């Protein structure tokens, strides 16, 4: 069985709460945790496009939100960026 969902993940709170040099790594962790919580899946695989979007403007200027499409199959959630 295959489920497909689109999520908008807010990242603005990371900008306000963390040091500039740790924002992008924390954003990647937050995306992974958000998808674990919402897909009820232990294994979350992020596409390289998500990583590139977060790191696009260096590690301290992350986007305020990010839209991802998640396909869940056999307990594994695979996320890609929505353009």
UniProtKB/TrEMBL annotation:
<dbReference type="InterPro" id="IPR023621">
    <property type="entry name" value="Ribosomal_eL31_dom_sf"/>
</dbReference>
<keyword id="KW-0689">Ribosomal protein</keyword>
<keyword id="KW-0687">Ribonucleoprotein</keyword>
<dbReference type="InterPro" id="IPR020052">
    <property type="entry name" value="Ribosomal_eL31_CS"/>
</dbReference>
<dbReference type="Pfam" id="PF01198">
    <property type="entry name" value="Ribosomal_L31e"/>
</dbReference>
<dbReference type="GO" id="GO:0003735">
    <property type="term" value="F:structural constituent of ribosome"/>
</dbReference>
<dbReference type="GO" id="GO:0022625">
    <property type="term" value="C:cytosolic large ribosomal subunit"/>
</dbReference>
<protein>
    <recommendedName>
        <fullName>Large ribosomal subunit protein eL31</fullName>
    </recommendedName>
</protein>
<dbReference type="InterPro" id="IPR000054">
    <property type="entry name" value="Ribosomal_eL31"/>
</dbReference>
<comment type="similarity">
    <text>Belongs to the eukaryotic ribosomal protein eL31 family.</text>
</comment>
<dbReference type="GO" id="GO:0002181">
    <property type="term" value="P:cytoplasmic translation"/>
</dbReference>
């Amino acid at each position: 069985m295959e489920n497909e969902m689109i999520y908008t993940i807010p990242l603005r709170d990371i900008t306000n709460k963390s040091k500039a040099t740790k924002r992008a790594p924390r954003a990647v962790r937050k995306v992974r945790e958000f998808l674990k919580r919402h897909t009820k899946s232990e294994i979350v695989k992020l596409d390289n496009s998500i990583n590139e979007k977060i790191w696009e403007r260096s590690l301290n200027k992350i986007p305020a939100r990010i839209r991802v499409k998640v396909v869940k199959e056999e307990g594994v959630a695979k996320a890609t960026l929505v353009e």
